[in-house]
């Protein structure tokens, strides 16, 4: 698992990440489902809030990158939609 560290003790299988902490079971269950935005079934990543570390769900890589961009550039979003509408 990307950036994850698995504990060796079988009763304490915790998925450790600098952004969140959960069990391998939770991570596996999230990754077994399709992307919550587009429905893709490959390359599912764990989406989490960068402020709280709380896991929000599973997204494909593309949707996760898009969501990250939107969160960082909320003020530009209206301009993006206006640009798309203008060039239809």
Protein model, in words:
By secondary structure, this protein is of the alpha+beta class. The chain has a single domain, classed as His-Me finger endonuclease fold (3-Layer(aba) Sandwich). It is built from three helices and five strands, in the order E-E-E-H-E-E-H-H. The protein has helices at 24-31, 61-72, 77-86; strands at residues 5-6, 14-16, 21-23, 44-48, 55-60. The strands form two sheets. It has a three-stranded antiparallel sheet with strand order 1-2-3. A two-stranded antiparallel sheet has the order 4-5.
Which range best describes the helical content: under 10%, 10-25%, 25-40%, 40-55%, 55-70% or over 70%?
25-40%
Average pLDDT number: 81
Class based on secondary structure composition and strand pairing: alpha+beta
Overall geometric form = elongated
The figure for the number of domains is: 1
Order of helices and strands: EEEHEEHH
Distance between the termini: 41 Å
Unreliable spans: 1-13
CATH architect. name: 3-Layer(aba) Sandwich
Percentage of residues in DSSP E strands = 15-25%
Q: CATH first level: which class?
A: Alpha Beta
Question: TL;DR of this structure?
Answer:
With 88 residues, this protein is α+β, with helices and mostly antiparallel strands. The chain has helices at 24-31, 61-72, 77-86, and strands at 5-6, 14-16, 21-23, 44-48, 55-60.
């Amino acid at each position: 698992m990307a950036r994850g560290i698995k504990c060796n003790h079988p009763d304490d299988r915790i998925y450790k990440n600098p952004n969140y902490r959960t069990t391998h079971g939770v991570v596996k269950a999230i990754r077994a489902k399709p992307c919550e935005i587009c429905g893709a079934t490959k390359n599912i990543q764990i989406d989490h809030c960068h402020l709280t570390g709380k896991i929000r769900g599973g997204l494909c890589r593309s949707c996760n990158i898009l969501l990250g961009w939107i969160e960082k550039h909320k003020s530009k979003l209206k301009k993006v939609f206006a640009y798309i509408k203008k060039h239809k």
